Amino acid sequence: MIRIAVLEQIGYREWTESIGSDREWKIQEIQAGIYREAQRTATRHGAFVLPLRYDYMVVITSNLTEDEEKEILESVSSLSPVAVRLSSDIGPTPLDAESNAWSHLGKIEPGRIGHFGNSNEFVVVSHIDLNNIKAITEKLGAFKTYTIMLNILERINKVSNEKGGLAQYLGGDNILVLLPHKNYEELVRKLVEIDDLKGSIAVAPRARDAMELAAEALHEIRLKRNTKVLKKIL
After folding, report:
1. Whole-angstrom Cα distance, residue 154 to residue 16?
2. Where in the sequence of the chain do the CATH 3.30.70.270 domains occur?
3. pTM, two decimal places
4. Predicted confidence (pLDDT) per residue in 126-145, tens digit
5. Topology of 2-115 in CATH?
6. Comparing C-alpha atoms, which of 61, 58, 30 is closest to residue 168?
7. What CATH code is assigned to 123-233?
């Protein structure tokens, strides 16, 4: 099972509409600060934050305690212009876990957390990137390269979602895929065939450890150049 937490800033859209039309720069500044603090707190406990829409963030919190999740909530609450709540639950796939967490969210009081489910938890991730991104960028420029990456992300998400996985763009040529706990190697091999891609796989009790292993495996792929997929397990 993987544990996913959904962190909601309650009434965020209404707040953005209350601060006037000259607001987008302020919203971006506040969002960046909240995400930075949330990620700093989460990774200190071995978790990892995906910003998604920013008013809703997803946190991979496998094997975190309620108190550790509460610290993440409090770090966001200290900077958020609106009240915040957090719900976490488990599932055999990331989308299942997120759906389970979401089902409790509306019942949680502002400023509180809900920590549901109890099982053996671990995280399976893939770190996928595009080959020859530097040469592509030098030829096409930043805008067109960014469009290429968004197109790849959409295609990866389409395939991943069918199996309960979720992909998040991390910048540059890097895409993180949260994987289901069954047949994940087969899934990653399908994903790297979407374009000129390579992908690492990592399995660990907590998200930060899985991310580190995935980065190590991807580095080995780049050095050895004899495989498109490599797995590491903690």
Report:
1. 28
2. 123-233
3. 0.93
4. 999 998 888 999 999 999 99
5. Alpha-Beta Plaits (3.30.70)
6. 58
7. 3.30.70.270
